Amino acid sequence: MSVAVRVTPSTRVADLSGVDYLVGDAMTLAALAGVTDRVGLMIEVDVATAAPFTVARRLATLDHLSAGRAGVLLHGGPHGRAEEFAAVVEALWSGWVHGTAPSTIRRIDHRGPHFEVSGMPTLPAGPRERPAVVFDEERLGL
Description:
It is a single chain. With 142 residues, the protein is α/β, with parallel strands linked by helices. It has one domain: TIM Barrel (Alpha-Beta Barrel), CATH 3.20.20. The chain is 34% helix and 20% strand. A four-stranded parallel β-sheet has the order 1-2-3-6. Strand 4 and strand 5 form a beta hairpin. Helix 2 runs parallel beside helix 3 and helix 3 packs across helix 4. The longest helix is centred in the middle third of the chain and has 14 residues. The chain is flat. One of its GO terms (molecular function) is monooxygenase activity. This is Luciferase-like domain-containing protein.
């Protein structure tokens, strides 16, 4: 699968003019990571259909590619699902600290009303200490 991203002058203006985040899918944002320097890159996630493990891996990858500019915008699902989703992603994110040996990886065992996740993170966290997590309250029905 290939992704064609057309970098327009508006992409460069957004990067240079103080826009906080560009929001989109992980593949497009990964391509934009190489042509932007300042703007944050926010993966849009519908928590009703996404898996926290997959999102944690995509987020860590994007954070590495963008030198610490990755984040996630969560929406969808029943009340409480987005908060639990974020907690699981952050647990996976912090299970393998950036720059440490694989022997320091912490296992996650999460059992909640919406998710059951057990296992080891398979990718070190990105350069950022914690991912930026934003809840789209309007689309979450809050």
